[in-house]
Amino acid sequence: MADKSSSNAYWAANIRTIMIYLVVWFVCSFGFGILLRPMLAGIKIGGTDLGFWFAQQGSILVFLVLIFAYAARMNKLDRQHGVEE
Amino acid sequence: MDQFTLNLLVVGATFALYIGIAIWARAGSTAEFYAAGQGVHPVMNGMATGADWMSAASFISMAGIIAFGGYDTSAYLMGWTGGYVLLAMLLAPYLRKFGKFTVPEFIGDRFYSGTARFVAVVCLIIASVTYVIGQMTGVGVAFSRFLEVSNATGLYIGAAIVFAYAVLGGMKGITYTQVAQYVVLIIAYTIPAVFISLQLTGNPIPALGLFSNEVHTGQPLLQTLEGLVTDLGFKSYLNQSDTTLNMFLFTMSLMIGTAGLPHVIVRFFTVPKVSDARSSAGWALVFIALLYLTAPAVAAMARLNLINTIYPQGVAAAPVSMADIEGKEELAWVRNWAKTGLLTFEDKNGDGLVQYVGDKEVNELTVNNDIMVLANPEIANLPGWVIALVAAGGLAAALSTAAGLLMAISSAVSHDLIKGQLNPNISEKNELLAARISMGVAIAVATYLGLNPPGFAAQTVALAFGLAASSIFPALMMGIFSKRINNKGAVAGMLAGLIVTIVYIFLHKGWFFVADTASFSDSAPMLLSIKSTSFGAVGALINFAVAFAVSSATGAPPAKVQDLVESIRVPKGAGAAQSH
């Protein structure tokens, strides 16, 4: 195992990353798709509004980007902190 | 060639493929049986996870639910995909690093408690058995409609196929079969959707067609649909009818339930490295999204086609007559599906016409959610081979999920109960035999329940998600992200979340699903507007709160357990599975 201080820094960086990504996850699904939909009602798309699009398609696309971005970011962090496999 | 022969050929060919893979991918060790030897490529694993996750509910039911439920049912789309973000960031990589075979095993080791492991086993078995029932009934319906055999014969054939590759190959056989099943199911789902999207909007990509203009009216498809459903007195397709609170909690329950379902989590034990577990969750979602981005398009287009079929001259003119339905060639699908009882029509007012309207007293046509996808190619008059393909796709979706669930059940019995608690000194050879026997028994039980589905089969799905969301997900997350949660806290939290959720479901659906013992109903729920299906998220919150409270009142976990948590947090040192 890597030495203690290095793995602590690694874990703190991981937690920070997760927090930021979870905010995006929340805002693009629960936010734009449900809670903030009335605020986005003015933006029209294909016979309905942007909130409907986020609820039915946009959120899924954002989820995809988030997971791959997280995987890439963590691979980089693994190397920086010398904890890769 | 007639439709029946086509169906037989296409379904027969896919089944031959699955059997071939079963023979090729036999398992020789417990590591291969439980975790496919941890040698599955992340993209392949993602595809297998997609097939594992997308059940009869995703393939057959979901588009139908959205077609009749509109915007409110977006909760399914967000909930059943958003859970993968949680899996990728909060669970999968660390559990892969832990490097053992089952979810209860992690809970037992991390919380150094046989009780915790046992509670996890019980949750896993209830959640998985519930799910299997739905898959097996789905297999029966698909067989009886498309292959003209009895429901029972269909089930036996399906069970025999699963038996062949699951018992022989374990996780290894299941994984490679699921890859093939994914390919079958995604082609089967996409091709009719492409045809229909072309017919209605001229756009070959259904996900884009959904937001395009309809060719006949020249106005946006969704706007056309919204106009028709509101003219007929149905609830709006585009606006929210549910309360915001309930929709929020329902979406959240489906998300954390997805992340907590053991048969999904174990898929990430099969990849070679921790970094593969992260990317594999992404690949799984890519393959799932191909279907989930198409589903809302299928839903809206199927609903539009249905209304246009019943009102060929527009909703202001008269609907089709009873005589048309009995006689016209293009309405043969109505007659075919009426035979299954999933579609019914009756001339209540005796005017010889079939009114399809929102007012339940006047409405004369009822269409079950489950037939929208299966009947879609017939409604749109697509060629016979497309219909045969949809039959094979529905079967692939149901069988692949059933196999994954049976795998989770049998490993919980052989690894967590027999090896973990009853006979720790069992040899690898005997454990493998025990795993195969429990798989056989699980298939027999699932087949029996498929033949005699309990009346509450559909409602218990809420129970499966409720259990996973309120007990398993929080326990796993706290086990990884907190070193302070101890054995007492974890057990108290899991039991509190579990019991409160089950009681809330029983209060609304009846104790043990006996309907007349219910004190509340989902149309007038006990707490605010929270339906019993949405309560899993509240149960999870209770679990977290109780676990923190109890843990802080009692001692910290032993140093050995804290070291375990340290070690699963870093990828370095994840080798092959340590089986003991």
Automatic annotation (TrEMBL), chain A:
<dbReference type="InterPro" id="IPR019886">
    <property type="entry name" value="Na_symporter_ssu"/>
</dbReference>
<feature type="transmembrane region" description="Helical">
    <location>
        <begin position="20"/>
        <end position="40"/>
    </location>
</feature>
<protein>
    <submittedName>
        <fullName>DUF4212 domain-containing protein</fullName>
    </submittedName>
</protein>
<dbReference type="Pfam" id="PF13937">
    <property type="entry name" value="DUF4212"/>
</dbReference>
<feature type="transmembrane region" description="Helical">
    <location>
        <begin position="52"/>
        <end position="72"/>
    </location>
</feature>
<keyword id="KW-0472">Membrane</keyword>
<keyword id="KW-0812">Transmembrane</keyword>
<feature type="domain" description="Sodium symporter small subunit">
    <location>
        <begin position="8"/>
        <end position="84"/>
    </location>
</feature>
<keyword id="KW-1133">Transmembrane helix</keyword>
Automatic annotation (TrEMBL), chain B:
<dbReference type="InterPro" id="IPR019899">
    <property type="entry name" value="Na/solute_symporter_VC_2705"/>
</dbReference>
<feature type="transmembrane region" description="Helical">
    <location>
        <begin position="153"/>
        <end position="170"/>
    </location>
</feature>
<dbReference type="InterPro" id="IPR050277">
    <property type="entry name" value="Sodium:Solute_Symporter"/>
</dbReference>
<feature type="transmembrane region" description="Helical">
    <location>
        <begin position="247"/>
        <end position="269"/>
    </location>
</feature>
<keyword id="KW-1133">Transmembrane helix</keyword>
<keyword id="KW-0472">Membrane</keyword>
<dbReference type="Pfam" id="PF00474">
    <property type="entry name" value="SSF"/>
</dbReference>
<feature type="transmembrane region" description="Helical">
    <location>
        <begin position="77"/>
        <end position="95"/>
    </location>
</feature>
<dbReference type="GO" id="GO:0015293">
    <property type="term" value="F:symporter activity"/>
</dbReference>
<feature type="transmembrane region" description="Helical">
    <location>
        <begin position="6"/>
        <end position="25"/>
    </location>
</feature>
<feature type="transmembrane region" description="Helical">
    <location>
        <begin position="385"/>
        <end position="413"/>
    </location>
</feature>
<feature type="transmembrane region" description="Helical">
    <location>
        <begin position="116"/>
        <end position="133"/>
    </location>
</feature>
<dbReference type="GO" id="GO:0005886">
    <property type="term" value="C:plasma membrane"/>
</dbReference>
<keyword id="KW-0812">Transmembrane</keyword>
<comment type="similarity">
    <text>Belongs to the sodium:solute symporter (SSF) (TC 2.A.21) family.</text>
</comment>
<dbReference type="GO" id="GO:0046942">
    <property type="term" value="P:carboxylic acid transport"/>
</dbReference>
<protein>
    <submittedName>
        <fullName>Cation acetate symporter</fullName>
    </submittedName>
</protein>
<feature type="transmembrane region" description="Helical">
    <location>
        <begin position="527"/>
        <end position="550"/>
    </location>
</feature>
<feature type="transmembrane region" description="Helical">
    <location>
        <begin position="489"/>
        <end position="507"/>
    </location>
</feature>
<keyword id="KW-0813">Transport</keyword>
<keyword id="KW-1003">Cell membrane</keyword>
<dbReference type="InterPro" id="IPR001734">
    <property type="entry name" value="Na/solute_symporter"/>
</dbReference>
